[in-house]
């Protein structure tokens, strides 16, 4: 389950119902993006990376995945490098996780944003509990990638992992704020959840929540979708489509700020931590050491509320990712 390709190219999200609230959720689903697991399985034998001329010392190639937050953070990296007087070639929206990963390892690109939790899959150590803490995830992949000639720079303090959001009215009425509260609501029969098939079936997702918080959500209380489009599951929970009042979301989804939802906190750390950070080839960083402090100033300020707000400007308001990135960095004196 590679994070994060699943909210790529989403249309703007409206906080109001479209076409009435009685339409079944499965008829509203957007084209299905590939799941993290599907992406991993289809590319594990080797990704096809675009062939570009060998990189010279005078320019740096900045890439990102084809998702909203990837485009945003990739643009921030590119703009920051340009502010240092460096020549930047943009390959933003290059492709899913392993396309970007393999391009970085092959030296086809120099730097890209990546999530710490994906290190669990890069290193085939998903069961290691280190991935469920912020420091543990970062240090584990930092050490592993150092041997591959890659350097993880300072990460954003925002966990973009799998979470569950509950309809705002229900959450306020029942006092639901954490997964412990959610477990109580499940036991009372109050929850109907919309989620991807992967979220329901993967041991690292819903079953991990169930084990940590001592509840079981029956399958007849779940609307399971083949895709991983959190814009669909979040809207269903907010609007009560098909009786749904809870939905699978990611921690920094832009739609969360546009919809009346309460995200359930995970105090027991049931999920792998996914914090975004720039990953750069060591040789490129050695040529341009000023990159480290410049990007640290940017990424350490990207907490979850900030990323949700910026992502919303793209997915909800329809703004261009680079324009959002430039405005944010300029307003904060980071360019």
- Whole-number mean pLDDT: 86
**Rg, Cα atoms, Å:** 20 Å
CATH class of the largest domain: Alpha Beta
Sheet with most strands: 5 strands, mixed
- Count of DSSP strands: 10
CATH architectural type of the largest domain: 3-Layer(aba) Sandwich
CATH domain topology of the largest domain: D-Maltodextrin-Binding Protein, domain 2
Could you please describe the fold and organization of this structure?
- By secondary structure, the chain is of the alpha/beta class.
- It has 2 domains: 173 residues, Periplasmic binding protein-like II (D-Maltodextrin-Binding Protein, domain 2, 3-Layer(aba) Sandwich); 102 residues, 3-Layer(aba) Sandwich (D-Maltodextrin-Binding Protein, domain 2).
- It has 15 helices and 10 strands.
- The strands form 3 sheets. It has a 5-stranded mixed sheet. The chain has a 3-stranded antiparallel sheet with strand order 3-10-4.
- Helix 3 crosses helix 13 and helix 3 crosses helix 15.
- About 15% of the residues have low confidence.
